[in-house]
Amino acid sequence: GAGVSQSPSNKVTEKGKDVELRCDPISGHTALYWYRQRLGQGLEFLIYFQGNSAPDKSGLPSDRFSAERTGESVSTLTIQRTQQEDSAVYLCASSPRTSGGAAYNEQFFGPGTRLTVL
Amino acid sequence: TQLLEQSPQFLSIQEGENLTVYCNSSSVFSSLQWYRQEPGEGPVLLVTVVTGGEVKKLKRLTFQFGDARKDSSLHITAAQPGDTGLYLCAGAAVGGSRLTFGEGTQLTVNP
User: Fold this and answer.
1) Three-class secondary structure of residue A62 per DSSP
2) What is the pLDDT of residue A56?
3) ω into A8 cis (within 30 of 0)
């Protein structure tokens, strides 16, 4: 079966431009997560969707970052006016369900989008 | 904010050696997961531990959850070059729906 897919795989942009990163989760997975991973480091939580709503967006680093999810499926992470410090790999993960503390459900990760801001 | 500290950050060993990676926090977690990530790919789940004191084995890998559910360890016996990768621990807060990841341990097993 198809796993989590992300596009583009690589994105090079100029400082100040906007970028959109896409995530297609595994079909039927209700939970969707976005993370940022700087080179050689762990994952930094950005935002979590349950269905189409985002009960936890506390990890978004600034108001330049936003995300949406439609049809309980595809999600888009948008970074406006990109800065060099935004350069990182952006990972998306989906999970079959989560309710009231079921974070121990396995998260299935996509391969990530490597963003480079020049 | 719950933090997870992993040690060591980097580990380079010879094939056949044993190693242990540690994951520590001052916070209690309802569960803890270990992931392995290879270059250019997303992390892949190895194991989830839920009960304090729990020990799980996956071939040559042994995972332990501390009695107080604040720490965990990953022990690899007779490491192989194929074990090379970034090992990440991730904790789920009690009643939470998100994971807090450690900074990772980059393991290199030399033939």
Assistant:
1) coil
2) 87
3) yes
Residue A109 to residue B102, Cβ atoms within 8 A: no
pLDDT tens for each residue of B13-28: 999 999 999 999 999 9
The answer, for B98 touching chain A at a CB cutoff of 8 Å, is yes
CB-nearest partner of B42 from A31, A40, A112? A112
Average pLDDT on A45-67 reads: 92
For residue B50, list chain A residues with Cβ-Cβ distance below 8 A. Answer: 104
CA angle B105, B109, B111 (to 5 degrees): 170
3-state secondary structure of A18: coil
- How many domains does chain A divide into? 1
Walk across the sheet containing B19-24 and list its strands: B5-7, B19-24, B71-76, B61-65, B55-58
Q: Backbone dihedral region of B24: left (phi > 0), alpha (psi from -120 to 50 degrees) or beta?
A: beta
Assigned domain for A104 exists: no
CATH code of the domain in which A1 resides: 2.60.40.10
User: Which domains are assigned to chain B?
Assistant: 5-110 (2.60.40.10)
| Cβ within 8 Å, pair A100-B106 | no
Residue A79's domain comprises 1-6+25-97
Q: What's the pLDDT score for residue A42?
A: 87
| B33-78 per-position pLDDT tens digit | 999 999 889 999 999 999 999 999 999 999 999 999 999 999 999 9
| A39 shares contact with chain B (CB less than 8 Å) | no
- Collapsing DSSP states into helix, strand and coil, what is residue B28? coil
